[in-house]
Design brief:
alpha+beta; four-stranded mixed sheet
Length: about 190
């Protein structure tokens, strides 16, 4: 004879569509730090999170708005900014002693060539060992922002504010070299 309710209420963060606990458990069982990549229309964020007995601890992080300190003048919600944010987070993680991680995209759809995979590619280029499939990474031309520059050229120049998006690939290369040279404090 069954007693009690037959329906259990899902956990609060699952009800709010904020956490996929099955995916989180698989990531935690790996025992590796997580590269948490989150995106919005205006911002990209990357964090390296280690799980411990007292909860999650962020060891290294970067926001796309942090790129301003390295000379980035373009908008921060696009693909090149996502790559550079991953690169910056990866360099900060290497400085903190982390050498490997697994990608945590949360509730974002795993669409090949998306911003979350650009964050992953940046972290890999920084030196982190992250298991991945090269098929999900965008073409290098797209990561550099050549598609944005082409569109801006068709429209006649400026993309956002005072920045001329036709110069985006060259600007991306210069900021990337600035980050990889390591002359600046991370």
């Amino acid at each position: 004879m069954a007693t009690g309710p037959r329906y259990t209420v899902p956990m609060r963060r699952r009800r709010e569509a904020r956490t996929d606990y099955h995916q989180r458990l698989r990531l935690l069982k790996s025992g590796k730090p997580r590269l948490v990549a989150r995106k919005s229309n205006q911002q990209v964020r990357a964090q390296l999170v280690v799980t411990g007995p007292s909860g999650d601890e962020t060891v290294a992080s970067a926001r796309a708005s942090d790129l301003d300190a390295y000379g980035w003048e373009a908008p921060v919600g696009n693909m090149p900014a996502a790559y550079l944010t991953g690169l910056l987070a990866g360099l900060r993680a290497i400085d903190a002693g982390i050498e490997e991680a697994v990608l945590d995209i949360g509730l974002n759809s795993p669409t090949p060539g998306s911003k979350v995979f650009a964050v992953q590619e940046g972290a890999i280029d920084a030196g982190l060992d992250i298991p991945h499939n090269d098929d999900v990474l965008a073409d290098w031309e797209r990561t550099r922002g050549e598609h944005i520059a082409d569109y801006a050229d068709q429209q006649g120049g400026l993309y956002s504010g005072e920045f001329d998006a036709t110069d985006l690939p060259a600007h991306f290369d210069s900021v990337r070299e600035t980050l990889l040279d390591g002359d600046i404090e991370l």
